[in-house]
Amino acid sequence: MVEVISTHIKDVWDAWNIRGMVILSLSIQTILIVLAPLRKRTRNSFLVIVLWLSYLLADWSANFAIGLIAKNQGKELKPEDPPQDQKLMALWAPFLLLHLGGPDTITAYSLADNALWHRHFLGLGLQAISGAYVVIQSLPNTLWVIILLLFIAGTCKYLERTIALYLASSDKFRGSILKVSDEARSLEKGEDSMQEYDRQQRPLELEKHDGDLTHLEILQFAFWFFNNFKSLMVNNIFTSEQSDESREFFSRLKHEEALRILELELGFIYEGLYTKASVLHTWIGAATRTITIGSLLSAFCIFHYRPKKSHEFHGADIVITYTLFLVGIALDLRSLLVFMTSEWTFAVFSRLNEGEADDETDDESESGSWIDPQLNWFLGFKRLQWKKEKCCKGVEHEVLNTPFLLQRWAGSIKLFNFISYSMNADTERIHGAKGRRRRCVRKAILLPFIYTINIFKEACKRIAVWNHKLHQYIGDVTNNWPMFIIVIVEFWFRIPHFFKSTGNYITSILGISDLDRTIPKRFVHSEPLTKELWVNIFTQLQCKLQHPDRQDISKTQAVRRGWASGNTDLEMAKLEGLMRYIADVDYDRSLLLWHIATELCYQEEASTLENHKDREFSKIISDYMMYLLINQPKLMSEVAGIGMIRFRDTLAEAEKFFRRRHIENLRDVKAASDEILSISIEFDPRDFKGNKSKSVLFEAAALAKELKRVKMDRGEVHEWRMVSKVWMELLFHAACNSDATARMEQLRKGGELINFVWLAMAHLGLGDQLASSTKETPEPKWM
């Protein structure tokens, strides 16, 4: 009988299956520890896939290795095996329990993993039983002391992960919010625990001095907002007193100070949801971490000074054991260093000056503040760094240029342009951001791969054409050929289609089909956040505070669906031609309509010193909102409506129009814009296209011509200022009504500008989170 698997391969597998799986588990832990902190700084798809695979394989490899070790304990030793070799493999079981505890930098890949804390708690018990079973099988074992120490360390590590998932789950999270609210009400009644609460929730009253905030003060304020406004993460509400306090503080902040506080607060939210930070900064975390490191070091010392190891154990197994010890200790020491230098630790060990305190408290504050200058100096390395860059029009801007390892988020904005996509044209960057050298090096490295992929795609297209022609030829001239020849030909030419269909099916089953974006990557590009853009956004939000009915702005917009006006100073009531594009317009239709019209005006009108700022703001926000609508449908689900249907219909109409004008192969956005604007529209496009088509292409052309009339009547500067304010209103409405779950999910994907806008609006009292103190807290909407 023919053997499918040779005896040699079986022998190799029997000899190295346990060793290989243990090394694989250790390698995966190293990958997670090194790469997991990077995911909040970048949106790189390759990193996302690597982390996703590593996160899933981590538990599988450790569980599989423990099963192999348990099975191996019952085998008889071969004559050439060392006498105590199986006993040493039993020592590896608690190491795998350590691996199941996972690194500090990632406990959950997504928010859905936090809801599975019950499963991890059950897994803790099952893995502990499995490890104990392996140890019992190996008895009598002279390594029992080392095994016991490692077993204690592994249990503590797994317990940390389970508690972190529990604390980040929606039920526990809401419970902690209600607990804090109850404490606050008790304190308002003047209970004696005021001083203790003061230490935990510092400061009770937000006070900003006239000068610039230091790096440490910015960190402390961000940590205070994180602790006191956690309800924002689950679309919860907070009292009018909290809103007034927050609004008063943020209204006095400078633009860059507000941005730094917001990015730190979002960073704390990320660590609370996806890492062990919320556990490690408690007495339970301190105890478990002390026990873990102490047990691991003690076990290593006992093993290292054990005599005659080379006679008792296999040489390769000794090397693997040392590797497990040394790499495990190194990774734990690295985690300890990261913990001690984390911003969460700095916030816990520092105190804000609270203004009103007695002499004794002042003395304690002075004696306890000796470390504050050192913390402030260290935090200075992670400050926002700006770099002056000239955009494509020669105008100089300050763009965010913080070094990658010091970033707290991606610091860039993804843009997508409809007309560029419909014309299959390359996108034009506005800023030469993130350094031309880095892009050149990246292109030099990736160019061979990109070239190979393009060749492969072109070959697939040609094969498809040849396949079609071959089918026609076979159908015409081979009617009398044997059927098996046709079947063979069909089989070989269907192989590529089979693999493609199989891949699509697997990705849909695994739930990772969203890793491939709806729009090809070459049509989506990044622009760095400019200081001028953030200043404009935050200034517009501060101006809204002056409106007497600011709390009712969102409700008023929702009732009359006037997304683009929103009680601002746009003066659109005097422009009758524009009102039909504002009043009674669905949000998704308004967004696509204004996006195309903005691009048409942008391509037609040249940039000047007077209109450049508003013109560029309009272009960036317009393309950014289109990116969110098309590529982030979950984030925009609350406001998107039938946006994808409108997009497809408009795209089909645009492609049809370009074919009629014979410009489909030009790949020139300027030429396409000129052709669209050249249409003579003497009637309302909505009157003849019917209800089946949701296209807004020609409505956008009509809107662009109305904007040109504004330019002729009031000047080009007024036109672009008005358009930029329209886009600010569209951005604010989307930020206020974006999906809470998707907002939190974006934190693990590099972050989004809309997260900053949403959080700023909430702190300024411009969102829908305000409620009376007696209103019941609604159920969380995420997880």
Show the helix and strand layout:
Blueprint: H1 7-35, H2 45-72, H3 85-101, H4 111-114, H5 117-138, H6 144-168, H7 170-188, H8 194-200, H9 215-228, H10 240-251, H11 255-274, H12 277-280, H13 283-304, H14 309-312, H15 315-340, H16 343-349, H17 359-368, H18 372-379, E1 386-390, E2 396-400, E3 412-416, H19 418-422, H20 436-477, H21 483-510, E4 524-528, H22 531-544, H23 553-560, H24 576-579, H25 587-604, H26 612-631, H27 637-640, H28 643-660, H29 669-677, H30 697-714, H31 716-737, H32 740-746, H33 753-763
Antiparallel strand pairs: 1-2, 3-4
Helix pairs in contact: 1-2, 1-3, 1-15, 2-3, 2-5, 3-5, 3-6, 3-15, 5-6, 6-13, 9-11, 9-16, 11-22, 11-33, 13-15, 25-26, 25-29, 25-30, 26-31, 30-31, 31-33
Pfam families: DUF4220 (PF13968), DUF594 (PF04578)
Keywords: Membrane, Transmembrane, Transmembrane helix
Transmembrane segments: 20-38, 45-70, 90-112, 142-159, 313-331
